[in-house]
Amino acid sequence: MSHPHAITIEQNPNRVKVSFGGAVIADTTRALVLKEGPLPPANYIPRSDVQMSYLQRTDHSTHCPFKGDASYFSVRVGNQVADNAVWAYETPIDAVAQIKDCLSFYVEKLDVSEEIRSE
Fold first, then answer.
1. Domain around 88
2. pLDDT value at position 5?
3. What value, to the nearest 5°, has the Cα angle with vertex 14 and ends 69 and 63?
4. Which residues contact 46 (CB under 8 A, 6 or more apart)?
């Protein structure tokens, strides 16, 4: 029987694109998919594939005993703002060190799409 809060991280074979307010915030073929217990899978996109100029760090933070402390960012495109729509574990726990230089995006606040890549 597996641990009820097991975390797995795998390479996402698809292209992942994040948009907001008509702007492309992130576009990558290098996303990682983090699966954590009963939670929906979350894509973590390398920071180098994110247009950081649209992100503004906020003072919001959360703690996960399985991943560490998360920092949050709001997305601003023109006059449109998605508050605390992006998070990052900048100093994650060793078990999830792969997500260190990655950002994840709330699908409820931003347009996150996946394009299946042909082999």
1. 7-110
2. 73
3. 10
4. 28, 30, 31, 101, 102
